[in-house]
Amino acid sequence: MNQNTFESLGLRRNLCRVLDDMGYLEPTPIQTQAIPALLQAKDLLGVAQTGTGKTAAFALPLLQLLDENNVSPHPRQPRALILAPTRELALQIHGEFSAFGRDLKLRHAVIFGGVGQSPQVRRLLKGVDILVATPGRLLDLAAQEHVDLSLVSALVLDEADRLLDMGFVRDVKRIIAQTPANRQSLLFSATMPKEVADLSRDILKNPVRVDVSPKQVTVQDIEQRVVNVDNSDKQQVLEKLLHDTAVSRAIVFTRTKHGADRVTRKLIKAGIGAEAIHGNKSQNARQRALDNFKTGDAWVLVATDIAARGIDINAVSHVINHELPHEPETYVHRIGRTGRAGSAGVAWSLVDTSEQGRLRAIEKLIKFSPRELEVQLPYREREHHASATRGTRPNDCARNNQASNGSRRPRRRRRRRAA
Ligand code: AMP
After folding, report:
1. Of 12, 193, 356, 376, which residue has the fewest beta carbons closer than 10 angstroms?
2. For residue 245, pLDDT beyond 90
3. Looking at ligand 1, which residue's alpha carbon is closest to its atom 8?
4. Whose CA is nearest to atom 14 of ligand 1?
5. Order of strands across the sheet that contains 108-111
6. Whole-prediction pTM
7. If you take atom 16 of ligand 1, which residue's CA is the nearest one?
8. How far is the CA of 354 from the centre of ligand 1 (A)?
9. Which atom of ligand 1 is nearest the CA belonging to 27?
10. Greatest CA span in the chain, whole angstroms?
């Protein structure tokens, strides 16, 4: 038998058929390593970030195990719990469970804050097999006795480093304390700072360790360049970089939510289709921004780190760091958003003099010094773009274009640089 198939990992035909329909031809490395161990109900420590196929790596075996032990879920008592740091990631995970579980009779639900709790409460009352949740809302509902975790047989902490980063450590521990001690536990994290290692030691029993960390990907596959620039020139440089015709879809990272809004406003003013995504936006606004970016109406997404994590967007040609992050690992996460699924991406970092220390720390982590990219200023194209406001962009053409060729890739709508 060909060893590199989902079937050879122990997944049953009904799941393999769905994967076939979804176009998953063969397992990714994390799936190859994790699925057989999880089917044996082992605990797992996965060092992996979004983009590696980690969601399927845990969702498929959990679905199979729950399906094999098919008991109807009791009202308010989920059988499996997946904790995720952000609403976007929770929704995404839930979407994958629904897709993979298409032919199974298992019930799933997703709960997160920022929206009314009544529909979530009703859903829990009907009984769910698999619950995907962000910690705050879950604890809220548990305190009100709308959910009871005493029958959870499998627990997944996804993006554990981000869960802890966002200050959820106590919430996570309180939630874990409400689950049975004999559960199967899985912890996924893109990085392994001490707090995550400590947590994993507390909650995992003899875990299988699977490491598909992206550090080599960072160095080998992504073209990284540094633009040395005065802070006051960053916006101009950013606009000039975005007008490079090679940029088809870009994520611009800013350190703060206000920074994201400011940069986005200026980009739109310069005729560049941009959306901002950060934690101050309502759930609906974040989803709208993401949809707009995914379907190509906006080809630049300006994001803060937390909001960007867990977002699954393919075909991002460029990641641009408007500022370098304080934590070197965050740089690795950021640039990992480009060059996904085997395609090479490009990452540019705008670095002013105050950020040189951060650059050194990143270079130490990635064991590599990105070359400098020189950008000539002043940038005088603005006059050409004065009329190209967001409202006058040919969105309808872009949509027609997508409809006719089936592609979600945004239509190229930048002007070439003035000679
Ligand atoms: P994840 O790391 O779970 O966020 O997955 C990243 C993306 O890869 C998602 O869009 C998945 O649908 C896709 N994916 C996961 N596993 C496979 C596979 N074996 N073959 C093709 N695509 C996959």
Report:
1. 376
2. no
3. 53
4. 53
5. 108-111, 130-133, 80-83, 154-157, 184-189, 44-47, 208-211
6. 0.62
7. 53
8. 38
9. 19
10. 69
Whether the CB-CB separation of 289 and 404 falls below 8 Å is answered with no
pLDDT of residue 410: 43
For ligand 1, pick from 11, 20, 24, 50 the residue to mutate: most ligand atoms within 8 Å of CB: 24
The finding on whether 312 has its CB within 6 A of some atom of ligand 1 is: yes
Residue closest to 236 by CA, chosen among 131, 304, 322, 130: 322
| Architecture of the 7-211 domain | 3-Layer(aba) Sandwich (3.40)
Cβ neighbourhood burial of 116 (10 Å; 0-12, 13-18, 19+): exposed
Q: Token digits for 229?
A: 């620039």
CA atoms of 123 and 82, how far apart (whole Å)? 16
Lowest mean pLDDT among 48-62, 164-178, 302-316, 402-416: 402-416
**Domain 222-394 of CATH type 3.60.15.10:** no
What one-character-per-residue DSSP string does 259-294 give?
Answer: HHHHHHHHHHHTT--EEEE-TTS-HHHHHHHHHHHH
Least confident of 49-53, 69-73, 378-382: 378-382
Residue span(s) of the chain under CATH 3.40.50.300 come to 7-211, 222-394
Residue 5, helix vs strand vs coil: coil
- Does residue 50 have its Cβ closer than 6 Å to ligand 1? yes
Is residue 373 within 8 Å of residue 227, measured between CB atoms?
yes
Task: Give the atom of ligand 1 at the shortest distance from the alpha carbon of 92.
Answer: 4
Residue nearest to atom 21 of ligand 1 (CA): 24
Ligand 1 atom closest to Cα of 96? 12
